[in-house]
Amino acid sequence: MARGIFITLEGGDGAGKTTQAQLLAARLEGFGREVLILHEPGGTRMGAAVRQILLGGGEDLDPTAELLLFEAARAQLVSKVIQPALLAEKVVICDRFTDSTVAYQGYGRGLDLARIEQLNQWATAGLLPDRTVLLDLDVKEGLERARALNGGGGDRMEQEELSFHDAVHRGFARQAAAHPQRIRVVPQMPTPGMTGQAVFDAVADLFAGDGQEAR
Ligand code: TYD
């Protein structure tokens, strides 16, 4: 079956994933590829509503309820947006995906990892990214950046303590160690452009069939 390419960007808050998704998309569009950028949670009407519940605050969410909401939004996004785009042979770049749930709800909140793996598989109908780029940034620096971008206070996740974000960071590192073929770690570079080159290098082999030189 014809299929596009599915790339996810992961990392702690403030790692610059949004900028990197845009830079990567522009680069791949230069190859003549059609690229769709998505952002979890979101990307559908239902996902946008769930995002508002998850990040907007206003209610103390039970961790299990939080986990299931992320997964519900993901199921909708995969079935209604990602799968159709891949069938249409597009490149899909998703800002956060299943590894975020392992890192935030598993390592951050302390929910059972095996259950999260099961839910991830269920919500995605087994869809795995062809490549995941983990943007690695000092936890404190990232958090300060993210909070500043969000008007000083930060959203519901960003308001969590440093120890929570340290655990999330550890979760991403463990995921990367467990899946070295799929997940490539890109450290923070002095400029977004330099990080962008490293992000591109981390996915370039997926586009070798396009008959393009990798750089
Ligand atoms: P967002 O404003 O999109 O932040 P970012 O730009 O850092 O992606 O907020 C998404 C937040 O939701 C972020 O703090 C990570 C968190 N999150 C989870 O806790 N679990 C998940 O499964 C996903 C997808 C995100």
What does the model show?
The chain is an alpha/beta fold and 215 residues long. The chain contains 8 helices and 5 strands. The protein has helices at 17-29, 45-56, 63-87, 98-108, 113-124, 139-149, 162-178, 192-203; strands at residues 5-11, 35-39, 91-95, 131-136, 183-187. Strands 2-3-1-4-5 form a 5-stranded parallel beta sheet, with helices on both faces. Helix 1 (17-29) packs across helix 8 (192-203) and helix 4 (98-108) crosses helix 7. The radius of gyration is 17 Å and the shape is globular. The two termini are 29 Å apart. The site of thymidine-5'-diphosphate has 17 residues, from helix 1 and helix 4.
Summarize the structure.
With 215 residues, the chain is an alpha/beta fold. The chain has eight helices and five strands.
Largest sheet: 5 strands, parallel
H/E element sequence: EHEHHEHHEHHEH
N-to-C CA distance? 29 Å
Helix content: 40-55%
Average predicted confidence as pLDDT: 93
Number of separate helices:
8
Give the spatial strand order of the biggest sheet: 2-3-1-4-5
Bound molecules: thymidine-5'-diphosphate
Sequence stretches where pLDDT stays below 50 over 5 or more residues: none
- Overall outline: globular
Beta-strand fraction estimate = 5-15%
Q: What's the count of strands? A: 5
Radius of gyration: 17 Å
Query: Which secondary-structure class do the elements indicate?
Result: alpha/beta
